[in-house]
Automatic annotation (TrEMBL):
Keyword Transferase: no
Residues forming the catalytic site: 132
Top EC class of this enzyme: oxidoreductase
A GO molecular function held by the record: epoxyqueuosine reductase activity
Organismal lineage: Bacteria, Pseudomonadati, Bacteroidota, Chitinophagia, Chitinophagales
Reactions this protein catalyses: epoxyqueuosine(34) in tRNA + AH2 = queuosine(34) in tRNA + A + H2O
Positions of [4Fe-4S] cluster 1 binding: 187, 190, 193, 248
Pathway: tRNA modification; tRNA-queuosine biosynthesis
Cofactor(s) it depends on: [4Fe-4S] cluster; cob(II)alamin
Binding site for tRNA: 222, 299
Name of the protein described by the UniProt record: Epoxyqueuosine reductase
Binding-site residues, [4Fe-4S] cluster 2: 197, 213, 241, 244
Primary site of residence: cytoplasm
Length: 315
């Protein structure tokens, strides 16, 4: 690898640190053959449920050079979102990633800044940044660039920091030095996440039945009703689910995020079940204007709330 590539790689890693990203890994932009096969089989089995968008742009998902012509390197960035504070015990549970501002808005802006910095340090750099909003296999690229392994729960697990991280991807035309994947994964014989999943969405061989995940039912599913067969299984989770991360031994290394934008919205920590029930749509839109909760909309949150209250009544 040339001195030029080494210098640019140092600039990339330093810029990541300056902008508050916790970890940075780099991989060569190429076709993800193994992941393409896995994705194809997963889709054929219908494990994406009603997430039809997962079927779109298959070629772009598996080859970044088709998503961004001229791509040479895939830069993967991890940003911690683990909160310092927890919710009121008497509250419908919300996944920790949604405590603060919408990560799409926050990290997308930071990726634009990242590209601008690279251009100022290196010269013109062509690239596109993505954060869970385009056909990119983020976890595959994170694993490929040495940032961790894919756990049995489907999450990327960093050996020193666990899994409470957002994954952002920057595809560029820079030729850089590439990081090596970890030699193995470190889940070993542990099955805590599989055993703890109340809807049995976590299958053997690191396969996740997305259509059975609590996060799917409470966020992705847009139907007026959640299927009756799921009653009694949600463990008071109203938006998303962290059970498989809570039981993962590697998350004992989790530390609170330093990102101000991910400071919990006070209402998420403080509202009781009764106060959630009394919340009207106007207040919901005002309070959660910049929150991931807006993805489910007021009607979706109300649907989820009624569903988990039924759970409590029968347990």
């Amino acid at each position: 690898m040339s001195t030029f590539s080494q210098k640019n790689t140092q600039i990339v890693k330093q810029t990541a640190k300056q902008l508050g990203f916790d970890y940075c890994g780099i991989a060569k932009a190429e076709f993800l053959a193994d992941d393409a096969k896995k994705l194809e089989n997963w889709l054929k089995k219908g494990m994406h449920g009603k997430m039809q968008y997962m079927e779109n742009y298959f070629d772009l998902r598996t080859d970044p050079r088709k998503l961004f012509p001229g791509a040479k390197s895939v830069i993967t960035l991890l940003k911690n979102y683990f909160p310092a504070q927890q919710q009121n015990i008497d509250a419908p549970k919300i996944a920790r990633y949604a405590y603060g501002q919408d990560y799409h808005e926050v990290i997308k802006q930071q990726l634009n800044t990242f590209l601008n910095h690279l251009t100022s340090y290196i010269g013109h750099v062509a690239g596109r940044g993505f954060v869970d909003s385009a056909p990119v296999l983020e976890r595959a690229w994170a694993q490929k660039s040495g940032l961790g392994w894919i756990g049995k729960n489907g999450n990327l697990i960093h050996p020193k920091a666990g899994s409470f991280y957002f994954i952002a991807t920057l595809i560029t035309d820079l030729t850089l030095e590439y990081d090596n994947p970890l030699a193995k994964d470190y889940c070993g014989t542990c099955t805590r996440c599989i055993d703890a999943c109340p809807t049995q969405a976590i299958l053997p061989n690191k396969t996740i039945n997305g259509s059975q995940c609590i996060a799917y039912f409470t966020i992705e599913l847009k139907d007026l009703l959640i299927p009756d067969e799921q009653k009694g299984k949600f463990k008071n989770w109203m938006f998303g689910c962290d059970i498989c991360q809570e039981v993962c031994p590697w998350n004992r290394f989790s530390k609170p995020t330093n990102e101000p934008a991910f400071t919990p919205i006070p209402e998420i920590l403080e509202l009781s079940t009764k106060e959630w029930l009394q919340l009207n749509e106007e207040s919901f839109k005002k309070i959660f204007k910049h929150s991931p909760l807006k993805r489910s909309k007021f009607k979706g949150i109300q649907r989820n709330l009624k569903f988990i209250l039924h759970d409590e009544a029968i347990n």
